C-alpha cells in the first residue's frame, strides 16, 4: 500500500510539484495538502503524545489533527490548504521540542 | 432602522437564506465564513478546476444545491461577503476575526449564528489509529477532492448520514467493506410514525439501503463496536464488532468512517452568554432559542444546524425565519403568512428529527462499556481509565473540573470530538444522568490560532 487515499475521479487536472520533508512529490491542482500527502504516504505526522502516526480525522478544519509546516515555519492545516507549485512542506514542527497544547 | 450592522456567521443553507431575506428587506449584511467558498457542509462547492456535475456531486439534492449556489452568486456582490475568515472570539457588539494570518474586529448590532454542525463521535478502542476518519470527513474527501479515505472502507456508527455516505462511496467506485449500524431494526420500526412526517425523505433513506444491498455491501444492524484493529505505524487494519445476534466478527479494512449523527457548533453563542438547553431526544446541549431563532441574549440569533440539528431543508427555512425575526425586532413590517409558513414547515421537520433520534439513538451505553484502555481524547491520548480516575479519586463529577484534572477537552479539537463521550464516561462513573455533569464551556479562541497573527485596523 503506497498511499492511504485513493483517487476516484477528477484526475485530468494539471500537475503541481512540491517538496515534502525534502523529497519531491507530484500532486494535482486543487488538491488539498492532505490529499497530496496521503495519496503518496499513509500518514501526515507523528503524534506528540504516543508512538502513533496521524493522518487527520475530520477534513473540515475542526480537529486540527492535520497540521504541517512550511519550511519557513508557517503552520498549515493540511485539510484546508491547497497545494501550490514549489511549496516546501515539513511534517515535523520546525521550532518546537515540547508538546503543543491547544 | 435600516442602518443596523448585521453580521451573519456561516454561509451554508441557513446563512445564505438569511442574507437573502435581509437583503430583500434593504439590509446589507456582512456574511463571514471560514471556508473559501460558500455552500456550507452539505452544499460544499468543489474547488475550481474540478468538473463533476451537480447530479454526480449532490445526487438527489442536486437541484437544491444548484438553487442555493445560484442564489448566493446573485447576492455575492450586493452583500459584504468575507470568506476565508474565522470568527474566533466575541465581546458584546464586536467579533474577533482572523483571515490569512490577519486579525481584525468587526462591530455588530445584531449577530446571526449559522455555524452548522460537526460529526458526533463515540470513541472505541483503537479509534486514534491513522485511517479512522469522521463520517462527515469521509464525505468531504469524496465531495471536495474526489478521493476515498482508503482502499477498503468500513462505515460504522449510526444515523442517516451513515447510509448516505456509504452509498455515495459505492456509486463513486470505492470499495465499501461493510456498513455497521449500532441501532437495531426494531427502533426504526418504532420511529416510523414520526418519520412519516416526511415520507419523501423516508423513502429516499429506504432506497439508499436498497442500493447498498444491491451492491452486495454487508450491512449489519444492532451491532456493538469492539475495536478498530491495527498498529501505531500502519494504522487501521480492520474492525472487530459484535453482531446483532451476539457473534463476534471481524472485517478487514484500511479505513473506518465513524460517526453518530451531528453536534452543533455552539461555541460563539456560548461565549456571547446565550443560555443553553439540554435536548432529551438527542441527549445533548444546544442553544436555547425561541421558535424563530432568538437566543436569550438580545441581538444574538441562531439558525440552522448550529442551533438545532434538523438538516439542510430546515436550515433554509430557519435562515429565512430568523431574518424575519430580526426584521420584526427592528420594527420592520414582516408578512405573517411568510413567517407562519416557515414555522409550519419547521414543525414537520422537528417531528422528523425526533423520529431520527429515536431510530438512530446516541449510544450512551457504549461510554459505560468502554474499556479503561480505550482513548477518549484522541488529541492528547487520554484514556477512559484516566478520566474515570478523576471521578473516582478526585471526585470531579462536573465536566469542567474533570477537564482541568484529566485534560480531556483541552487538546487541539477543543472538545469537539471527546466532550460528549467524556461527559457520558463521567456520568456513568459518577452514577448520574449525563445532563447532571454539565457541559464543557466554550472558550476563545474557538479554534487554535497561529502565533504569527498580525493585527490590522478594522
Ligand atoms: C461533514 C458534514 C456533511 C454533511 N452532509 C450532509 C448531506 O450529505 N446531506 C444532508 O442532508 N446533510 C448533511 N449534513 C448535515 C448538514 O450540515 C446540514 O443539514 C446543513 O448543511 C446545515 O446547514 P447550516 O447552514 O446550518 O450549516 P452548514 O452548512 O454546516 O454551514 C455552517 C458554516 O458556518 C461556518 N462557520 C462555523 N463556525 C464558524 C466560525 N467560527 N467562523 C467562521 N465561519 C464559521 C462553516 O465554515 C460553515 O460553512 C452534513 C453535515 C456535516 C458536518
Ligand atoms: S483533518 Fe481535522 S482539521 Fe484537518
Q: How would you portray this structure in words?
A:
Chain B: GO terms for molecular function: oxidoreductase activity. Chain B: It holds the Pfam family Pyr_redox_2. Chain B: Residues 5-318 form the FAD/NAD(P)-binding domain. The complex is a heterodimer of chains A (102) and B (458). Chain A has a single domain, classed as Ubiquitin-like (UB roll) (Roll). Helix content of chain A is 6%, strand content 27%. Chain A is built from one helix and eight strands. In chain A, the strands form two sheets. Chain A has a five-stranded mixed beta sheet. Chain A has a two-stranded antiparallel sheet with strand order 4-5. Chain A is globular and about 40 Å long. The model of chain A has no long low-confidence stretch (mean pLDDT 90). Chain B folds into three domains: 6-118 and 263-356, 3-Layer(bba) Sandwich (FAD/NAD(P)-binding domain); 121-260, FAD/NAD(P)-binding domain (3-Layer(bba) Sandwich), CATH 3.50.50; 365-436, Orthogonal Bundle (Arc Repressor Mutant, subunit A). Chain B has 14 helices and 24 strands. In chain B, strands 3-2-1-7-21 form a five-stranded parallel beta sheet, covered by helices on one side. In chain B, strands 9-17-11-12-13 form a five-stranded parallel beta sheet. Chain B has a four-stranded mixed beta sheet with strand order 4-5-6-24, with no helix packed on it. Chain B is globular and about 65 Å long. The model of chain B has no long low-confidence stretch (mean pLDDT 95). At the A-B interface, strand 1 and strand 5 of A face strand 9, helix 4 and strand 10 of B. Strand 1 (6-7) of chain A pairs antiparallel with strand 10 (147-148) of chain B. The complex binds flavin-adenine dinucleotide and FE2/S2 (inorganic) cluster. Residues 9-15, 32-35, 40-42, 86-87, 114-119, 136, 139-140, 161, 164, 262, 265, 268, 304-306, 311-312, 315, 446 of chain B line the site of flavin-adenine dinucleotide.
Amino acid at each position: 500500500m503506497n498511499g492511504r487515499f485513493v483517487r476516484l475521479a477528477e484526475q485530468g487536472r494539471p500537475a503541481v510539484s512540491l517538496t515534502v520533508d525534502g523529497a519531491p512529490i507530484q500532486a494535482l491542482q486543487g488538491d488539498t495538502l492532505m490529499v497530496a500527502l496521503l495519496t503518496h504516504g499513509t500518514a501526515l505526522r507523528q503524534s506528540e503524545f504516543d508512538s502513533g502516526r496521524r493522518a487527520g480525522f475530520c477534513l473540515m478544519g475542526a480537529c486540527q489533527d492535520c497540521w504541517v509546516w512550511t519550511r519557513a515555519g508557517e503552520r498549515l492545516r493540511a485539510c484546508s490548504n491547497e497545494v501550490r507549485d514549489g511549496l516546501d512542506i515539513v511534517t515535523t514542527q520546525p521550532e518546537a521540542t515540547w508538546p503543543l497544547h491547544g | 432602522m435600516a442602518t443596523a450592522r448585521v453580521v451573519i456567521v456561516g454561509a451554508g443553507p441557513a446563512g445564505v437564506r438569511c442574507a437573502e431575506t435581509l437583503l430583500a428587506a434593504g439590509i446589507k449584511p456582512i456574511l463571514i465564513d471560514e471556508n473559501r467558498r460558500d455552500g456550507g457542509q452539505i452544499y460544499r462547492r468543489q474547488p475550481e478546476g474540478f468538473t463533476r456535475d451537480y447530479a454526480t456531486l449532490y445526487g438527489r439534492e442536486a437541484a437544491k444545491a444548484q438553487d442555493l449556489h445560484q442564489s448566493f452568486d446573485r447576492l455575492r456582490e450586493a452583500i459584504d461577503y468575507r470568506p476565508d475568515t474565522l470568527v474566533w472570539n466575541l465581546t458584546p457588539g464586536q467579533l474577533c476575526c482572523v483571515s490569512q494570518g490577519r486579525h481584525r474586529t468587526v462591530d455588530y448590532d445584531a449577530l446571526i449564528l449559522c455555524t452548522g454542525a460537526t460529526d458526533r463521535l463515540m470513541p472505541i478502542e483503537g479509534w486514534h489509529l491513522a485511517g479512522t476518519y469522521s463520517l462527515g470527513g469521509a464525505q468531504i474527501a469524496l465531495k471536495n477532492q474526489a478521493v476515498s479515505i482508503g482502499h477498503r472502507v468500513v462505515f460504522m456508527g449510526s444515523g442517516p448520514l451513515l447510509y448516505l455516505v456509504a452509498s455515495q462511496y459505492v456509486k463513486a467506485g470505492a470499495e465499501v467493506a461493510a456498513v455497521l449500524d449500532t441501532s437495531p431494526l426494531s427502533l426504526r420500526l418504532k420511529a416510523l410514525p414520526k418519520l412519516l412526517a416526511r415520507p419523501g425523505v423516508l423513502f429516499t433513506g429506504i432506497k439508499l439501503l436498497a442500493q447498498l444491498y444491491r451492491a452486495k455491501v454487508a450491512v449489519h444492524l444492532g451491532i456493538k463496536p469492539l475495536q478498530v484493529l491495527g498498529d501505531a505505524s500502519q494504522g487501521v487494519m480492520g474492525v472487530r464488532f459484535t453482531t446483532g445476534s451476539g457473534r463476534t466478527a471481524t472485517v478487514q479494512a484500511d479505513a473506518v468512517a465513524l460517526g453518530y449523527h451531528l453536534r452543533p457548533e455552539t461555541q460563539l453563542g456560548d461565549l456571547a452568554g446565550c443560555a443553553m438547553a439540554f435536548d432529551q431526544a438527542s441527549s445533548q446541549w444546544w442553544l436555547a432559542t425561541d421558535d424563530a431563532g432568538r437566543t436569550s441574549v438580545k441581538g444574538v440569533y441562531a439558525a440552522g444546524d448550529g442551533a438545532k440539528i434538523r438538516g439542510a431543508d430546515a436550515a433554509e427555512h430557519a435562515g429565512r425565519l430568523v431574518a424575519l425575526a430580526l426584521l420584526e425586532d427592528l420594527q420592520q413590517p414582516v408578512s405573517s403568512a411568510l413567517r407562519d409558513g416557515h414555522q409550519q414547515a419547521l414543525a414537520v421537520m422537528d417531528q422528523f428529527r425526533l423520529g431520527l433520534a429515536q431510530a438512530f439513538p446516541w449510544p450512551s451505553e457504549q461510554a459505560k462499556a468502554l474499556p479503561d484502555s480505550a482513548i477518549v481524547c484522541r488529541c492528547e491520548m487520554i484514556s477512559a481509565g484516566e478520566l474515570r480516575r478523576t471521578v473516582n479519586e478526585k471526585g470531579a463529577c462536573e465536566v469542567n473540573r474533570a477537564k482541568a484534572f484529566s485534560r480531556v477537552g483541552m487538546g487541539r479539537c477543543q472538545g469537539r470530538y471527546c466532550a460528549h463521550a467524556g461527559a457520558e464516561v463521567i456520568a456513568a462513573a459518577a452514577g448520574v444522568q449525563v445532563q447532571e455533569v454539565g457541559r464543557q464551556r466554550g472558550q476563545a479562541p474557538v479554534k487554535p490560532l497561529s502565533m504569527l497573527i498580525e493585527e490590522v485596523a478594522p
